[in-house]
Design brief:
The chain is built from no helices and eleven strands. The chain is mainly beta and 115 residues long. The strands form two sheets. The chain has a six-stranded antiparallel β-sheet with strand order 2-1-11-10-7-8, with no helix packed on it. The chain is globular.
């Protein structure tokens, strides 16, 4: 299962599994992941899981900014909506997270054709 990790000075402080189709991040108490950072909007960003067009039963995760005041960055670049890849870093305000996909498809079952 994919998850995000809250990282402070290279130390993982907390982890959240991404089990819902949509996970809202922000300062508001009703967010799925509440962030105590005054530079984070009440509903700052969301992570959306969508069906993978190429691998049945797998999902692709997207990070979307929800028109936050201070924006959302992925790997140092400002974004509106972007696909997340394993190991990506994103920042909301002064708070940094790392995305861990942990969903590598099993490719060991590939057939070998001998001619």
């Amino acid at each position: 299962m994919a998850y995000i990790a809250l990282v402070v000075e290279d130390v993982v402080i907390n982890k959240w599994e991404l089990i819902e189709d949509v996970t809202i991040l922000g300062r508001a108490k009703d967010c799925d992941i509440q962030i105590e950072d005054q530079s984070v909007s009440s509903k700052h960003a969301r992570i959306v899981a969508e069906e993978d067009d190429y691998l049945d039963g797998h999902h692709v995760m997207f990070l979307e900014d929800l028109k936050s005041t201070n924006g959302t960055e992925l790997n140092g670049e400002s974004i509106e909506r972007v696909k997340l890849n394993d190991g990506d870093w994103f920042r909301l305000g002064f708070t940094e997270f790392q995305f861990v996909a942990n969903t590598t498809p099993n490719l060991d079952q590939t057939s070998v054709i001998v001619s």
